[in-house]
Amino acid sequence: MPKEDRSRDYSDLSPELLELVRTLQASLTERRVRQQLPSVDSKPSMLESALSRKQAQRATQPPHIASHPQLLAAVVESADAAIMSETWNGVVLTWNRSAERIFGYSVDEMVGKSRSCLIPEFLKNEDAKVLRQVIDSKATLNCETVWQHKDGKFIDVAVSLSPVVENDKVVRLSLVATDITERKRMERALMESERKQRQRTSELKIVLDAVPAAVWIAHDAECKVITGNRTSYDLLRLPQGSNIAFGGPEDTPPPNFRVFRNGRALEPHELPVQMAAFRGIEVRDFEEDLVFDDGSIKHLIGNAAPLRDASGKVYGAVAAFIDITARRTMEEQIRRMAHFDSLTSLPNRILLMDRLEQALAISQRNQSKTGVIFMDLDNFKEVNDKLGHHVGDMLLQQVSERIRASLREVDTVSRLGGDEFVVVLPELRQIEDARVIGQKLLKAVDGEYIVSGERLLITPSLGISIYPDHADDASTLIRIADKAMYHAKQSGRNTYRFYDTSMSG
Hints:
By secondary structure, the chain is of the alpha+beta class.
């Protein structure tokens, strides 16, 4: 093409002329080849004849369409894609400016030469197969592959190969190659990003399944779909991967547990995950109890937080809870060890004093009375000396059960040690109420016991003090009740005595 034609502006090209591009390309091919290769045939080519017929058909059309063959060549030259043609055996016939720009070879370097310089060594066999397929099928083939720039760098291209058939034989090939390097780079970057995302997701799942905490994730703001890690499903005794949302779809089976807090069953909207999603707040140090259908209980503590998108809108929530059942059990054991007698499971002196102080506070507020009974088993030392301490311990356990059974629910019985027991009687209306309970205790404890095959007859001695009649503090009430108990023993045992001031001496 003349240089002055290449620099012209062909932006006003009629769309109808595009139909002639393929025919013109072939015509230009033969003209270029005749300039560089020896002529082997002086007859007009079939493509030239076809072009002449096309021009004749358009002779009746407006001159600005039929009289612009150079514009068609300009279309090829100005196209963004590399447009070229070659003989059936791979000799380049035409090479446009975009081909020169994309691959770095000039027209002079390519026309009349083999296109093999564009094909990387590792793809030459594949390229040969593609050409053979086009020639054998006589049909256009589109593919994506890699070609090579003059400087050696690889270029991703989308190639369209179209055969030119004469007498049922492929004589030439037209090729259109588009540089898709940037698109491929973005695709590879996206694939790599997706691969890393899948890897991170897989790693996160492994981490979540490994941690000893139960993790729940609400996947929507309404908390209709909630899933968790392995620990959460094991904790809830549910199949892995199931939806653990309360109030889920109708086909979702009801959970085999209920959630309680401070003894009250929680509604779905009161659960930590739902609170975080519905209200958009963080929930911290939330303690709850899972009560299962079989009666077993799990104690949990944890946090929950809303999940937000880039705009700050809540789209779900996440919660992490740990099972503190063992810790609660240990705390309860420690509490019992600190406040209860290990042999009889009755309150010890520490808890006794606390209960007595509470009872005195209530009596002072309500202007009622509180009684204290100090009990000692008669001749208990002989049981230990004759039958052994293990028999004495079993006897004390049976005595404890009888004492408990004879008292009111508000009363407290404590074992101070050995065979000594103290009973707190809160909210008495009058002194006679303490007398009635004392007589009831005597009757309950006095009697026959079968311990380790031995028949034992046991009687108690009781001393009674009353607040505020005898004293107004806990320690004094216990001390003077102890004195009254010794007076009961001196009076023949198996009886009770109320404290009076004459016992002070």
